[in-house]
Structure prediction request, 264 residues.
Amino acid sequence: MEHLMQNGEQQGRAAEGDADYALRIDGLTVEFGPAHRPARVVNDVTYDLKPGETLGIVGESGSGKSVHVLASVGLIPSPPARIVGGRVMFEGRDLLGLSRNALSTVRGKGIGFVFQDPMTSLNPYLTIGRQLTEAMEAHLSLTATQIEARAVELLNMVRITEPKTRLKQFPHQLSGGMRQRVMIAMALACEPKILIADEPTTALDVTSQSQVVQIVNSLKDELGMSVIWITHDLGVVAGIADTIQVMYAGHIVERGPTEVVFSD
Ligand SMILES: Nc1ncnc2c1ncn2[C@@H]1O[C@H](COP(=O)(O)OP(=O)(O)OP(=O)(O)O)[C@@H](O)[C@H]1O
Prediction:
């Protein structure tokens, strides 16, 4: 199996060459439930994310927004999920054919994630500094001093004041908005090409929400990333997305420049 996957990786690299996309999802189809009566929750999803683009994906609860991105990067448990078709091209390789190790490197260095609830993503027993450091140690060859300096720099980037003090604190000592900004710092630690934000502001008050949106938007330009921002609230992404894509029942039902989709 491992051998087959490695062959798949090589073929993927050879076939694509230089790419004009940051991420290309082509015909992704994901099912749950018994094979003889499957529930197709992601159905032939196809789109490109361009370099530097912010793509807002909106749609009602259960429309397949989360499942399709999680499946794309190997974060959906299978079983129960089954990826029954498609390709997910990133840097010339089909992520669906990569080994677990290769995918873990892609997720560490190539594609960063921020999820809805930082309390479940952060370890309550480890300091913020320890968690930031772990994210970097796994993927960057830096000395301990460099890593510490980078941790301070990352907290500054997400506008957390007194970063040296914060690094010594535990998640419960930070506000919800700060915890979410720590998650963004962790996701950006290895300077990914793509940041995927899945409802990152849902649990936050309005002020913290707009702060997180603005921070991600300015870091996107600074770091030259592309962003996929998943939300059920069009208002959250209206000000920052270049393109909006609407999902319904596992399909993309509408896609276009933000101002066009918004006026519809
Ligand atoms: N482990 C699972 N087993 C069975 N069905 C699942 C599982 N995980 C997700 N689904 C189903 O897949 C569908 C798509 O879910 P998904 O989480 O992608 O929706 P979403 O658009 O992100 O909505 P939300 O905003 O509520 O997260 C839903 O019908 C959901 O019930």
Summary: The beta strands are 23-32, 39-49, 54-58, 82-90, 93-94, 111-114, 194-198, 226-231, 243-248, 251-257. The first helix runs from residue 2 to 16. The pocket of adenosine-5'-triphosphate is lined by residues 32, 41, 59, 61-67, 80, 232 (CB under 6 Å). The CA atoms of residues 118 and 179 lie 6 Å apart.
